[in-house]
Design brief:
With about 220 residues, this protein is of the alpha+beta class. It has three helices and twelve strands, in the order H-E-E-E-H-E-E-E-E-E-H-E-E-E-E. The protein has one domain. One of its GO terms (biological process) is enterobactin biosynthetic process.
Length: about 220
């Protein structure tokens, strides 16, 4: 799945994935041909932000796996500072200066992506189930990935259904925003996404250049 997602994007991204209870993280850089750039490294879980005391053990495992993937993606992108991500608005990870990213976990799988902060990134992953599969699941995953790309800078609550899937191919999609959310996120705006599937999961990655209003000048100084 990682290889397929990375092959279908031309942005400078690092992707990472692992099994929730696994001991290895698989990483790949965007632009690599499927299967050619995958590298497995031992999982190194960074310090995690606290969860409520009543949080289920499975929730803690999923958080650890997602943050481990994010840390490895940041290492591969050249970040040398702390790999312990704080909590941003809505509980999403707070990425280091100059970086943006997204992470997702579902079932036994966790994924993360990171790139320069000039990009809005949204990654969603869903496990197939008898209740949600086929075209309905694909639309859901694509909209959720667009929502996760927009929310950190739009900073307003909105329904992911505000994104309409207007173009769909066997590996790519285009979503159109049906209403204005905030400056830089306006009605009619189009977002590009890629998607991939396995027998058990479906994932989508939205990658959109940020409006200059939101761009972090630090990202221009990154190697």
């Amino acid at each position: 799945m990682l290889g397929r997602l990375s092959h279908f994007t031309d942005a400078p991204l690092q992707l990472a994935g692992m099994e929730v209870a696994g001991q290895e993280v698989w990483t790949v850089q965007s632009g690599d041909l499927p299967g050619t750039g995958l590298v497995a490294v031992p999982a190194q879980t960074p310090p995690l932000p606290p969860l409520p005391p009543h949080a289920h053990a499975r929730r803690r495992q999923e958080q650890a796996a997602g943050r481990t993937c994010a840390a490895e993606a940041l290492r591969r992108a050249g970040w040398t500072g702390s790999l312990s991500l704080g909590r941003g608005p809505g509980g999403a990870p707070s990425w280091p200066p100059g970086f943006s990213g997204s992470l997702a976990h579902s079932g036994a799988l966790a994924l993360a992506v990171t790139g320069p902060s000039t990009l809005a990134l949204g990654l969603d992953l869903e496990e197939r189930s008898p209740l949600l599969s086929g075209p309905a699941l694909l639309r859901h995953v694509l909209r959720e990935s667009a929502f996760k790309a927009a929310f950190p800078t739009a900073q307003v609550p909105f329904d992911p259904a505000a994104f309409a899937v207007t173009v769909l191919t066997p590996d790519r999609a285009e979503l159109t925003l049906t209403r204005t959310l905030a400056p830089g996120w306006v009605r009619g705006q189009r977002l590009r996404a890629v998607w991939a599937q396995t027998t058990g999961h479906l994932a989508a990655l939205t990658c959109q250049p940020l409006h200059p209003l939101f761009q972090d000048p630090v990202s221009q100084e990154l190697p």
